[in-house]
Design goal:
With about 425 residues, this protein is of the alpha+beta class. The chain folds into three domains: about 90 residues, 2-Layer Sandwich (Phosphorylase Kinase, domain 1), CATH 3.30.200; about 180 residues, Orthogonal Bundle (Transferase(Phosphotransferase), domain 1), CATH 1.10.510; about 140 residues, Sandwich (Jelly Rolls), CATH 2.60.120.10. The chain has 13 helices and 19 strands. The strands form five sheets. Strands 1-2-3-4-6-5 form a six-stranded antiparallel beta sheet, with helices on one face. The protein has a four-stranded antiparallel beta sheet with strand order 12-19-14-17. The chain has a four-stranded antiparallel beta sheet with strand order 13-18-15-16, with no helix packed on it. The longest helix is centred in the C-terminal third of the chain and has 29 residues.
Length: about 425
């Protein structure tokens, strides 16, 4: 079977590729009978032909049509048709014009306004409430499965691993470890019996990411992720972003409750609380810089280019943010200290023996030798205008994940080598 898309599937014209995912490739199509654009998901030929998993993949592929086809809701992508055309399996669904997933809005430098997050979460909760009342559990609620239109309307998509709970169902989809681990509920990662509440936990994770730009259970491997989902409380969102009301924080905490008895029972309950919380958002006063804003500032620095978001979060959480006014002394020549400083905003002056040597700016760092060997400072560093720094030492870096420590050490050593080479070159020129 050719990898090239056919020009037609059944009665539908196939125009161009829109997206490609694990369950299939989505094309823009045209329905000539209704004269409207449609989205056509085509199963991956190589996965259908796999001797070991082909049958299971085919079942999961058409499961989306079987499940979502039962649902008619303004916030769920509509399924129009499904079929097989010369061994090509396809599903025809609503085309969300200008649609994009929520993934890009889960980044700390591209967050939606808090009230807009609440609106999106409200619509998701209402969609899930409807699906659950029809006996459908999505099981894979995550940012990439939630589309938003240009007007920020919501469309819940991809029911390929959904499960039907109706007693008269002949559905035999597996109830084991299926889905996306980062968005799984405690009962999912334990491969335990699941209810509709597993979707509400997953939605809680999505809301947390939309509000803060970080995952509530940051981990660098699967086993650590599972341990944190099962045992660790999520960080306080009020400490990560300004403009969060206590009511909204309680809503997210309840959605992320590890014990199902403490979690929302139905999406309608969650939606009702979100509606009540929305009214109080506009009354929130402005607050000082939050950890989320610090993350955005730190991530933009050249020093942290190449660091994944999760590791930047670790550095921000481990370090100490310090603000200095003009002419404030940061470190003094001759004092003993093992800290390393990265300039986030502003400028500092390096002074030795009462003589200004040079200026350092945002993205520059100082204190490398003290960090390595805890030696006496060889110069005095003074703020020149309002200045913000991230202060780090070996103890706090040692608490970060191994991958983060290795990446930090590489950049640190590269910076140190560059600084030493510049100093050596300057000394040779003076000689």
């Amino acid at each position: 079977m050719s990898n090239a898309p056919p020009s037609r599937l059944g009665k539908y014209e196939v125009l161009r590729e829109i997206n490609r995912g694990s369950m299939g490739t989505v094309y823009l199509g045209h329905d000539p009978y209704t004269d409207r654009p449609v989205a056509i998901k085509v199963a991956h030929a190589e996965q259908l032909q796999d001797e070991e998993s082909g049958d299971r993949y085919r079942k999961m592929f058409f499961n989306e049509a079987h499940m979502a086809g039962r649902l008619t809701h303004p916030n769920i992508v509509a399924i129009f048709d499904a079929g097989v055309d010369e061994e090509v399996c396809y599903i025809v669904m609503e085309f969300v014009e200008g649609g994009q997933t929520l993934k890009s809005f889960c980044k700390a430098d591209n967050l939606l306004p808090v009230e807009k997050v609440v609106e999106v979460a409200f619509k998701c909760a209402k969609a899930l409430d409807y699906a659950h009342k029809q006996g459908v559990i999505h099981r894979d609620v995550k940012p990439t499965n939630i589309l938003v239109t240009r007007d920020m309307d919501v469309k819940l998509a991809d029911f390929s691993i959904a499960h039907l709970t109706k007693l008269d169902s002949t559905e035999t989809m597996p109830l084991g470890l299926v889905g996306s681990p980062r968005y799984m509920s405690p009962e999912q990662v334990c491969e335990d019996f699941i209810t509709n509440q597993t979707d509400l936990f997953s939605l809680g994770v999505v809301i947390f990411e939309l509000l803060t730009g970080r995952h509530p259970f940051l981990a660098d491997n699967f086993s650590r992720l599972v341990q944190r989902i099962l045992n660790d409380p999520p960080p306080k969102i009020t400490e990560l972003r300004g403009g969060i009301t206590p009511d909204l924080e309680r809503i997210v905490e309840k959605a992320l409750a590890k014990n199902r008895d403490d979690r929302y029972k139905m999406g309608g309950e969650l939606a009702a609380d979100l509606a009540r919380a929305y009214d109080s958002l506009l009354e929130q006063p402005q607050v000082n810089i939050t950890e989320q804003e610090r993350f955005v500032a730190v991530k933009a620095l050249d020093f942290f280019q190449g660091f994944p978001d999760s590791e930047v979060w670790e550095i921000v959480a481990a370090g100490k943010w310090q603000d200095y006014a003009d002419r404030n002394e940061i470190i003094l020549e001759g004092e003993l200290d093992d800290s390393f400083y990265i300039i986030v905003h502003g400028e500092v002056t390096v002074r030795k023996n009462n003589k200004d040597l040079r200026s350092l700016f945002a993205g520059d760092c100082f204190g490398e030798m003290g960090y390595l060997a805890k030696t006496k400072r060889t110069a005095t560093i003074t703020a020149r205008g309002p200045t913000s720094l991230l202060k780090l030492n070996s103890s706090v870096i040692g608490q970060a994940s191994l991958n983060c420590q290795v990446r930090f050490l590489k950049v640190f050593l590269r910076t140190l080598i560059h600084r030493l080479s510049v100093t050596t070159e300057r000394m040779s020129q003076e000689l």
